[in-house]
Amino acid sequence: MRLRSPRDVRAPRALRGLRPRLIAACVAVAVLAAATASWASAASASNSLLRSTQQRIADTAARGITDTAPALVYPPDTGDLRKIRDALDGPVVVTYESLRVQAGETAAITEQLRTAVHGGDHLALQRVDSATGMKLLVGMPVLITGVDGQQRPSGIEVYLVRDLGEVVRQVNALTRNAIWTSALALPVAVLLALLAARGVLRPVRELRGAARKLAAGDLDARLRPSGADELAELATTFNDTAASLQSSISELARMEADSRRFVADVSHELRTPLTTLTSVAEMLEEDLERMPSDARASIELAIAETRRLASLVEDLMEIARFDAGAAQPHLERVDVPGVVRECLRSRSWTGQVRLDSPEELAAVLDRRRLDVIVANLVGNALRHGDPPVVVRLSADEQELHLEVIDNGPGLPEGIAAQLFDRFYKADSSRGRSAGSGLGMAITAENVWLHGGTIEAGNTDSAGARFAVTLPRWSEET
Amino acid sequence: MATIIAVMAQILLIEDDQSIRTSLALALGRHGHEIREAGTGEDGLRMLASAEPEVVVLDLMLPGMDGFEVCRRIRAKSAVPIIMLTARGDDFDVVGGLEAGADDYVIKPVQPRVLDARIRAVLRRGTFAEQTQSDRYRDLTIDRAALTVTKGDQQLALTATELRVLLELSRSPGQVLSRMQLLELVWEYGYLGDSRLVDNCVQRLRAKIEDEPARPVFVQTVRGFGYRFGPV
User: What is the pLDDT of residue A1?
Assistant: First the structure.
């Protein structure tokens, strides 16, 4: 599966990215908190302002009445009531039974208040909204102290109307302040949220970058954990993971390198005795005719196995060179059909293989490696497929196409991918066939060394088809 | 094979492995050669002076003085053909050996008949006199009968391979010979001959015959095709 590039994910991220969500949450919380706090404090300030104003008004009135009360005669007459009225400023009504004295605008006084005061011994307060603003109504019974020391209502009732306009203005100012505070909190909250988001997102972004590098194979990717928060812990965890990954991978790489070096060393060492064996085998081969038949049979076996061993060692060393990166193509201008013809001729395959090619086809390639590619593919086709085997050459401006097609049963389902693996053998019952099991791997390595591609598949008529594409005009070496 | 002895050569085999030495000596002996064996480079160099071999077969992996150094030291005093024994396609070995002055190489494990074919080919290069005339190009004189090359008044010490390349190229000045053609004409290789043999030989040849090897006049490169002699 192809990984999505960063560009692909950008659009949806704008909608559900971490940053907008973080900022929105921060702003909401900050504004809500600021609004709640300022509203609460405004409300409580307003409340205590009202209460203290009411208290002050009630105290003043009570004092006025208390100052006047001792001078009163019971039952009082209108003059007594006037004395009380005069002791109090502002709109006031003083009543005793049916007597009534008043001053100022007192229409605001409600029946409700009267009922509350009448016959009781407690001060009553009521706030009313009138056309001229908010008023505080105070109703209080005047108490007298009897001979028994008990206080009881004297029957005189005093009603005051006091303007609360000033208090209301102050409360309104407090409310306005609360609104402004909330409003001011918004940009501050956004700013703080941005800062906070950056503080959180920077490590997240760094983590993402490092994770991407790691995924891309840069095992040295690490983060610098700063601070002691969860993100720093995450960074440390990431570093630990990367480090353990790196050590596992380098351990694997070391083991693989060791085993490959071992194969290379062993092959190298095998070459010395093989040189002797090859040399001796050749001499024995020349003398075969003079030997008794049983000795001849064993010597023929020894010779054949020596050659097979030599070819296996040669293939192993070739693979080892590819692994070590020591394989270099020797690029030169090559007559491709000529090389293919020679490849077939030198292996006595000409009769079994049809070459389908233009008369001349030049390309810049490694001649020996082209020979290896053709020899392996044709050899494979002859071993596993049926004749006729066809080698087809074609080219365009940029590329050379080489196809090797046989008429056999074709490749079994699903083996195309493993075909170029080392020691892969399609038919396990033919496990000890002539090949070393490295031929296809070497073929593919040679193709890749040229910067080409190789594909395995079946033709429409079921035979196997190997298609090699090579760049045609590489720079000559 | 053993009955047809076309060339009987004195061969110096420098190889550290006793079994390889013995088996190759036996096999090459059957091909009609006479083998002297040396187990180290130092021994080989000593024997070179006394035995005067016609061909040296040199293993590159030697204990002590390595094959490249031995090759350089032989070249310093002798034009004797050198065939090196190397690992297959081991570029470092092949290039290093050719630069040190080897004429050809065979790959281990080598079949004696392949080695024999290489030995015969390298010997033929030095015994292949042709037309009688000698050609002169500027200060370079090529004597095709005597198989000598003179620059100014000095006779050049060319190896048989270098001489043969020069002779093939100068036979028709101005005509391009591909590396493949030269491999076939001089080294007697089929289509899988290694064109680095040609390139290295041409470089060594230029170092000897050109005034400025980096800007050759006699042996010129025709990029993508090969080499040609002149036009002078």
Answer: 38
The candidate with the shortest Cα–Cα distance to A268, out of B98, B44, B17, B38, is: B17
Burial class, B53, CB count within 10 angstroms (exposed 0-12 / middle 13-18 / buried 19+)? buried
Check pLDDT > 80 for residue B83: yes
d(CA B131, CA B77): 29
Please tell me if residue B146 touches chain A, with a CB cutoff of 8 Å. no
Cα–Cα nearest to B135, from B170, B174, B169, B161: B170
DSSP class of residue A391 equals E
Residue B89: the pLDDT is: 55
Contact partners, residue A471, CB within 8 Å, separation at least 6: A398, A399, A400, A450, A451, A452
Chain B hits for A330, Cβ within 8 Å: 194-196
According to the model, what pLDDT value does residue A130 have?
77
- Average of per-residue pLDDT across A348-375: 92
Amino acid identity of residue A339, one-letter, is V
Residue A294 has pLDDT above 50, yes or no: yes
Phi then psi for A67, rounded to 5 degrees?
-65, -35
**Closest-CA distance of chain A to residue B19, Å:** 6
**Nearest C-alpha in B relative to A324:** B90
Q: Is B142 helix (H, G, I), strand (E, B) or coil?
A: strand
Mutate to test the interface with A, among B61, B191, B200 (most CBs of A within 10 A): B191
Nearest-10 crossing angle of helices A230-287, B18-30: 40
B63 touches chain A (CB under 8 A): no
Rg (CA), chain A: 54
Would the CA dihedral through B62, B67, B68, B69 be positive or negative?
positive
What tokens does B115 get? 């080695």
pLDDT at A454 over 90: yes
Per-range mean pLDDT, top range of A82-91, A176-185, B39-48: B39-48
**CB-CB neighbours of A327 under 10 Å:** 20
Lowest mean pLDDT among A23-32, A312-321, A421-430, B19-28: A421-430
pLDDT for the residue numbered B88: 58
Averaged pLDDT score across all residues of chain A? 84
Question: Taking CB atoms and an 8 Å cutoff, what residues of chain A touch B91?
Answer: 326, 328
Say yes or no for a CB contact (<8 Å) between B89 and A276: no
pLDDT band at A168 (very low <50, low <70, confident <90, very high): confident
Domains in chain B (CATH in brackets) are 10-125 (3.40.50.2300), 134-229 (1.10.10.10)
* Coil, strand or helix at A148: coil
- Separation CA A57–CA A88 (nearest Å): 11
pTM of the model: 0.65
Contacts of B26 in chain A (CB under 8 A): 279-280, 283
Q: Is the pLDDT reported for residue A11 higher than 70? A: no
For residue B65, report the phi and psi dihedrals to the nearest 5 degrees.
-65, 125
d(CA B44, CA B88): 24
